[in-house]
Amino acid sequence: MADIFRLLSRGSTLAKGATGGSHITTTRSKPTTVPAPKKRSREQDDLAVPKELDFFGDAANVKKKPKVADADGDLSMDDTDGEEEEDEEDEEAAVKKENGELEVVEDDDAVRKLMWAHKLKYTLLTDPTANDDGGEDGAKKTKRKKKKYAQLLIPPLTSFTQLRSSAHGYALSRRVYENILAQGYTAPTEVQMGALPVLMKKQQTSGMLTSLSWVDLLTCAPTGSGKTLAYVVPLLDWILSTRKESGGERGVRAVVLAPTKELAGQIVNEVKKLSVGTGVRVSLMRKGMAGTSVKGEEAGISVKSDILVSTPLLLLHAIEAEEKEDGKKGEFANVRRLVLDEADVLLDELFRDQTLGIWRALKESAEKDGGLRTSLWSATISSGTEEIARNMMLPSSALAAPITTLDEPTIPSPPSPKPKKSKKSTKTPETAPEPAASAPAPTATILRLIVGIKDTSLPTVKQTLLYTATEPGKLLALRQLFTTRFVPPALLFVQSIPRAQALYNEIQYDLPTPGRIAVLHASLTDTAREGVMDRFRRGDIWVLITTDLLARGVDFKGVRLVINYDIPTTVVAYIHRVGRTGRAGREGGEAVTYYTEEDIGYVKGIANVIAVSQGDQGKGEGKVGKWLLDALPKVGKRERKELKKKGVKARAGTEAKGAARISTKSGYERQRMDKKRGAVEASRRRAAEAAKGGESGGESGGEEEFMGIEE
Ligand SMILES: Nc1ncnc2c1ncn2[C@@H]1O[C@H](COP(=O)(O)OP(=O)(O)OP(=O)(O)O)[C@@H](O)[C@H]1O
């Protein structure tokens, strides 16, 4: 593990006053760490220069963005499903020269600056040291021990061309590299800059890139920042580089879990795009595959793919079915990589048991053979989720045995004083002894990567809170928006399935062109769900009414407007819903959140997120005033939990009970309309009966209410 750390981190020891050595990224040296910054409240953070990320101590001296290479778009693509070509040459030097890119990170200060500029923060979670956080002994206060973790400096990836380079420790297959460029991606996004070095760098042994890095990773990066590519490319890289070892045997080697079918399907498509021509196969887990029987059939269809993408329950059933059958995990015995996309949902109450069931089963079967490497991804990861994940990542043996690399003298080191301008040490002090060649395989290296400010919504999305007083007020506001400044496509979120359907019934004819509004929720059939997704992606649907089903992960590139018709029941849900717009740095996205009297207690959390994310950019109606933040009441933990579980009470329940009803009409008007409808129906029935009695003409029943395109 020491070797891997040396690959991942910079060599000099700041504690001893070195300002950095001049060496390339693959230098074998001790990790350089910086101590964790003091915790700051969100309100305190200066958003232009997030101080919590200023662990380099000299933010002011940092240049803006580093130069990154533009990709050479002139590619020759071969779509055959053949095996990988041998890498012929190190192309990077030539491309880098052409583009004048920043190629090799020179020293620790350069790494710090680069990490600061791209808001990357790595924390080593493997071996916390108990730290007295200043609590006092006494009658009222009890002394608390707080875990303290070391932070690491890891040179970020500054251009995709580096991925082709052996000198940088990557040597990614040419085909995958070309597939990345074929997507039109010219430079890595920040999460990719931070995660790819951790997950892909290989070890230099006798001048060759041999063993692979050995890291479990928790990544928290903003919505729409390209996390999918950040885990798919390392998976492809690992599968291709270990293909020979696996003897060309087919079968599942990596599993990706996602909370919804929509997201799972999207991930499969991403893997397909990035693996064109590599021979790597990917499948979406379906009923009837791998041990699960469908319609009474006994045997499941064997999964021939290298990568399997699934929602948790389906996969758990398949694993359990196999275990029951022969006590082995036949189909899944070779899985060595596990990815949890939207990890905080997968480890939250609803999915936790299923996810942990899968994780344990895969971990158990991998333990004797190199172990299972896991990575978790989300735009929001709570400390609770982190703790669950950390415990799962630590192998049982590692929990007892100290991990040799982590208590070396270079960790932690104090923050760098203001970097001196040109002073560079030429030699990297090696303080740690080299591990013996026969050292046992690493047991656990758990890293956390945070990109940007944790748990905030995108600053590029204009966010507005709109008080509508009452339920009918929301409908009026929505109709006004449709007739004044509406720019499709829009996603419209409500609290429940009955409310999604009710809103659809109410507004389906509100746009001048019919058929442009649709509804998508979990009660629809798979085919209907897929159909609506396709039509929305094609631009046939302009307004998609949905529940939190589509709040996470789903990437509709061009969504311009998110309307929280019903207030999200958690701040986390708010961040993810709003993140459906402003994808991949797109400007011009907007999010409007309506709230009524019933919601007042729940607005403060959202208002705080908006205030932090918008900073000085929030102008006019988008800005959350201090007066509002001060005026909004605080909500206790218990109430928040309740809200998360059941939603706003006034809107819970069915349409029949009135709670899900969405209409601008008063009770009196509705009663009159019901009576009128009753009379019309009775007269139709009479006409139909008369027609049955021998008279011709007149269709029975007349118009049925249109309940949605998919039903
Ligand atoms: N390097 C890149 N350059 C430009 N666009 C990119 C790059 N990488 C990914 N993208 C695009 O960014 C968009 C968002 O990517 P992705 O869905 O992976 O985001 P995410 O971080 O997983 O978001 P969420 O948290 O909402 O799930 C996609 O449309 C993808 O095509």
From TrEMBL:
The lineage of its organism: Eukaryota, Fungi, Dikarya, Ascomycota, Pezizomycotina. Residues 477-632 form the Helicase C-terminal domain. This is ATP-dependent RNA helicase. RNA helicase. Keywords: ATP-binding, Helicase, Hydrolase, Nucleotide-binding, RNA-binding. Residues 667-689 have a biased composition (Basic and acidic residues). It catalyses: ATP + H2O = ADP + phosphate + H(+). Residues 208-399 form the Helicase ATP-binding domain. It holds the Pfam family Helicase_C. It comes from Morchella conica CCBAS932. Residues 71-92, 701-711 have a biased composition (Acidic residues). Residues 428-440 have a biased composition (Low complexity). GO terms for biological process: maturation of SSU-rRNA. InterPro entries: DDX52/Rok1_DEADc (IPR044764), DEAD/DEAH_box_helicase_dom (IPR011545), Helicase_ATP-bd (IPR014001), Helicase_C-like (IPR001650), P-loop_NTPase (IPR027417). Its EC number is 3.6.4.13. Belongs to the DEAD box helicase family. DDX52/ROK1 subfamily. It comes from the Eukaryota. The keyword Ligase does not apply. It is an enzyme of class 3 (hydrolase). Interacts with the U3 snoRNA and is associated with the 90S and 40S pre-ribosomes. Residues 22-32 have a biased composition (Polar residues). Residues 11-50, 65-98, 126-145, 405-440, 644-711 are annotated as: Disordered. The Q motif is unique to and characteristic of the DEAD box family of RNA helicases and controls ATP binding and hydrolysis. One of its GO terms (molecular function) is hydrolase activity.
